[in-house]
Protein: Branched-chain-amino-acid aminotransferase
Organism: Candida viswanathii
Amino acid sequence: MFNRTVLGRSIRSAQWIRHNSSKVAPLDASRLTIEKTTTPKPKLPNDQLVFGKTFTDHMLEIEWTKEKGWDVPKISPYHNLSLDPSTIVFHYAFELFEGMKAYKDANGLIRTFRGDKNMIRMNNSAERIALPKFDGEELQKLIDKLLVLDQDFVPEGKGYSLYLRPTMIGTSASLGVGTPDRALLYVIASPVGPYYSSGFKPVSLEATDYAVRAWPGGVGDKKLGANYAPCIKPQLEAAQRGFQQNLWLFGDEGYITEVGTMNVFFAFENDDGTKELVTAPLDGMILPGVTRDSILELCRERLPKDEWTISERKFTIHEVEEKAKKGQLIEAFGAGTAAVVSPINHIGFRGRGIDVPVSLGTSGDLTATVAEWIRQIQYGEREYKNWSRVAQ
Ligand code: COI
């Protein structure tokens, strides 16, 4: 039921209080039930893997209702969902998702990378669109079970992984605009290779200033499906003009925010010869990327402090243009779960071109270094804090 009228709202909010005083079930991984497939799918060789096109044998689902809370978690054979055409997700975009990856290490163990960060972000997204929150550690335990069951689908090799897509949708069947009283949390998994079919190659960007990805007070810092569909058209327009991705600007100042569906980093040289790695600050418009956070932390820890400053600050396309003119633009790259890091070699802006150096041919030196630092942790070659979790 939905709160459609002011009167209805006041009556139902009283019910809601009573309802909340009774106990609703938390998400509990120990209640998991597993139904295994009787028709296992063939595993594709690495060279036939296309991002997000094929899926493992099983999926995880947990239903939630306002009355009872989180139901029994179920792992069952991968299947279609059956939803009433009026279901609220189809009309008002009650949908959020995460992107995580699982890696096979040299001992055949399956590892996820900083899943706790994804759980925090997923709960923040849920809270913003009135979907239920949950205990992130319990979801991680359930994801571990799915990974153990489908471990033969995790491809081996550098650049190969199992992309995990935790998703939550509002499933109340009603056209009323209101708080969902039913939801479905599910996780599917897709064996993947490098995100771009071209592999680790630099991309050219068109700086978009006629459309914005996010705005102050909006939801750009939440991983909502509704943030992604409106990004396609500017990307298509950039592609028509020969660019591979678009660089999102904001405001008359031309602040650089993100690139495509990724966070973006620029490395500058200062007049005194020191260097700065800069990315936009988490001001509510920027997605708090796990890769972004990892790069910032590793660079702050590992780059020489007398040589590098690591900045989260506002910076503009004009600053990048100036730096390039002065020969002080060192390199630039996008950062996200899907592509990890994506080198940039050119930016088109209002008919002008900014060439971004790629000192190693396919990327800049720092881009390659951070990509390798992260890869070593993801594949369990180097332990770092609790960033890599073995599924069991
Ligand atoms: C990522 O870079 O991790 C993304 O968010 C891309 C994804 C939407 C495919």
Notes: Confidence is low (pLDDT under 50) at residues 1-21. The chain is about 25% helix and 30% strand.
